[in-house]
Amino acid sequence: MMERSKRQKQRKVLLMGRSGAGKSSMRSIIFSNYVAKDVRRLGATVDVEHSNIRFMGNLMLNLWDCGGQDSFVESYLSNQRSHVFTSVAVLIFVFDVSSREAATDTLSFASTIRALHEFSPTSKIFVLIHKMDLVPPDQRSRVVHQRALELRATCADEGFASQQVDFWATSIWDQSLYRAWTQVIYFLVPNASAIEEMLGRLAGLLEAREVVLYERTTCLVVTHVTRGVEEGNPYGDRFERMSSILKTHKHSMARHTGTMASEVSFAELQIKTGEFMLFITRLTENTNLAVVMASDEASFNAARVNVQLARREFAHLDIVEKKGKDGQQHAKGPVGSAEVEVRAMDDGEVSSSGRASDR
Amino acid sequence: MRTLFSENILSPSPALVPRPNPFELLLPSSAPAATSPSASVQSSPRQHEWLTQYSQSQQRVESEEAAQSSYVSNGPRPQYARRKGNPRLFFMGLRKSGKSSVQKVVFQKMSPADTLFLEPTTRIETDSLQSFVTIETAEMPTQLSATLPTWDHHAIFSNVGAVIWVLDIQDEYLSSIASLIETAVLLVTHHPRITFEVFIHKTDGLSEEYKHDTFREVRQRVQDELSDLGHGDRSVSYYQTSIFDHSIFEAMSKVVQKLLPQLPAMETLLNKLCSTCRIQKAYLFDTGSKIYVATDASPTFLKDYEVCSDYVDVVADIKQIYGWQGHGRARAGGEEASAVGESMVTYDQSGDTYVYLREIDDHLSLLCVMGKGSSVDKRMLIDYNVGILQQALLQVFKV
């Protein structure tokens, strides 16, 4: 396998598709803080554009945005074949749903995954059926379904098992873009289950209805925990909506303060209403946590304090891959009070009103 | 009882006769404690302004009452400066200048890109925005000219509070200016109390210099023509607008503000709040249409408005997502005294609040862009003061 330092995990992600499918646009919106309107400025990608994106601190995404023009594709499939397709963790293939050459697209797809199968047979394939805003709403599910069927057959032909391939319909003009990329990221984050478990415990302690972990720069959801009442929330796509809302908010703040959107450092956002209370705050250096609670001032304030204390715990997730217990032992060293809180969290004995009175 | 101000603001000489302040004018019952005599001491220069405005509007009201009797305001209270109930706006302009687009984008929340598909207006269309104060709009199709003798302009203009002329800056605007002058003259002669606004529209995509030059040119021309015709003293307001950014909302806010009689009261309240809580800028937003109905006296920059308007959007969206249980409850019936919605966002590590939002009622929100010094300890003070403001505002509008 790849020999890397314990601290960093590198994942190679290929972003491929025909020329003009929307690969660079998606990449710039998600990772480079472009607004959907700005992507008009992007020109055709020449050969491969490499980006190394730090994600969640210890994950390094090695993103290969491969130009889709025929000459480049030729070159990947022939003389650069092994260079491009070795050690790939994820292939993201983008189809332009409005393309008039569907058959050629499919052929191109087939040859690409054939090459992929030669060198990285265990990689995961995400097929994004893009530019869905150009399809009338009533036809959307039918079109996606048809395409997916065809392409699944192609993948099966080339030797990929059906669970290795995922299909998503996307558009840069709504939140579907965030949903698809959230799935990609979730697949790539190495310790997702450890994070989920810790979040679950935290949510139980806070008595929160929902706890969502976001990556700081891209505002993509890494994982979430839903408890109790919130399971009935009719907005199934609320996570990607939140991503989109937060991203827009970041841009708006950047414009106002005159800084770059990438530098805007968010401290906390609170919303209190009669039905719910929500706060979003920094959890680790690279992630933000959103906590949704019932509308109760005392437990809300207690939750905020608890999350501040929990930061120490979660900081370990960024650097070391050691799971829960070890992380806690590390925390017992330095600060006395923190130690008490950490153990209390462990036992889960502390009630929310008790917390409030401590302050 | 605690007042809204710190002790230093109170005048040292206590035996001052309390001058009539705007609150007392509007409220028959006693004003809230916050607006004690110290309010009048604080704001004496402005005091006279309001009184003058008030007496002017009172005269106007009296003459109107005498002139015609239709469209009575809520309740027979002629002594208050009520402008016949609801603010009414009337849009005029050449064809394809953008009148319907402006209405749809501001009042019906249509996306600006969709306005391409609007059909030309063929008859006089009226609409109303149900909000904390109902704003009614009407639009005139350009086929009917204001100066047609067969056209009964009295019937149309009698109820109107403001006429907005939309001038398309990207099209040939000289002919528009000519019609503008005609209409302005007509209004000045027959309906002098209607405020006349000019939207220099479709300014998106033009360079700053060009915008500035054209703006100045239009204004100059209109002023010249009007003064040639002997109406040089007529005040006409000009705004650069575009539906593709926030400028149209800003302009609409200013137009609507002129039509609200409660404006001085709201402005004073906001001024007080800003001075005591060290708020950089405060707006009273109409949550639905994102027009602001009042702001404090500090200089207004578009970017403050933009950040507040975007923040209102963020909060409204998140409320919709996570407040889903409320919808069912509201429909089930019964007035539930739900807790007041409030929100704040903090940037940078110092923990100073950046933007603060507080719902006054279903349609009205207070938005503050905070300056330095609104840290956690001060938050209690801010909460308290805003609470007082909220109660005061509710009282102002109850009349």
> Pair with the most extensive interface?
A-B, 32 and 33 residues
Q: What best-fitting shape of chain B do the alpha-carbon axes yield?
A: globular
Helix content percent band of chain A? 40-55%
Which stretches of chain A of 5+ consecutive residues score pLDDT under 50?
A: 1-6, 320-359
| Mean pLDDT across all amino acids of chain A | 77
H/E element order of chain B: HHHEHEEHEHEHEHHEEHHEEEH
Question: What would you report as the Rg of chain B, rounded to the nearest angstrom?
Answer: 22 Å
Number of strands of chain A: 11
Taken in chain order, the helices and strands of chain A follow as: EHEEHHEHEHEHHEEHEEEHHHH
Please state the oligomeric state of the protein chains shown: heterodimer
Strand order of the largest sheet of chain B: 2-3-1-4-5-6
The number of E-state strands of chain B comes to 11
- How much helix, percentage-wise, in residues of chain B? 40-55%
Shape of chain A: elongated
The total count of helices of chain A amounts to 12
Relative strand content of chain B: 15-25%
Structural class of chain A: alpha/beta
The biggest beta sheet of chain A reads: 6 strands, mixed
- Low-pLDDT stretches of chain B are 6-49, 62-83, 330-339
Gyration radius of chain A, in Å? 22 Å
Number of helix segments of chain B?
12
GO cellular component, one term (chain A): fungal-type vacuole membrane
Pfam family, one (chain A): Gtr1_RagA
InterPro entries (chain A): Gtr1_RagA (IPR006762), P-loop_NTPase (IPR027417), RagA/B (IPR039397)
Protein name (chain A): GTP-binding protein
3D architecture notes:
- Chain B: Belongs to the GTR/RAG GTP-binding protein family.
- Chain B: It holds the Pfam family Gtr1_RagA.
- Chain B: InterPro entries: Gtr1_RagA, P-loop_NTPase, RagC/D.
- Chain B: It comes from Friedmanniomyces endolithicus.
- The complex is a heterodimer of chains A (about 350) and B (about 400).
- Chain A has helices at about 25-30, 70-75, 80-85, 100-120, 140-155, 175-190, 190-205, 240-255, 295-320, 325-330, 335-345, 350-359, and strands spanning about 10-15, 50-55, 60-65, 90-95, 125-130, 165-170, 210-215, 220-225, 265-270, 275-280, 285-295.
- With about 350 residues, chain A is α/β, with parallel strands linked by helices.
- Chain A is elongated and about 65 Å long.
- Mean pLDDT of chain A is about 75; it is low at about 1-5 and about 320-359.
- Chain B is an alpha/beta fold.
- Chain B has helices spanning about 20-25, 35-40, 45-65, 100-105, 155, 175-190, 210-230, 245-260, 265-275, 300-320, 325-330, 375-399; strands at about 90-95, 125-130, 135-140, 160-170, 195-200, 235-240, 280-285, 290-295, 340-345, 355-360, 365-370.
- The longest helix of chain B has 24 residues, at about 45-65.
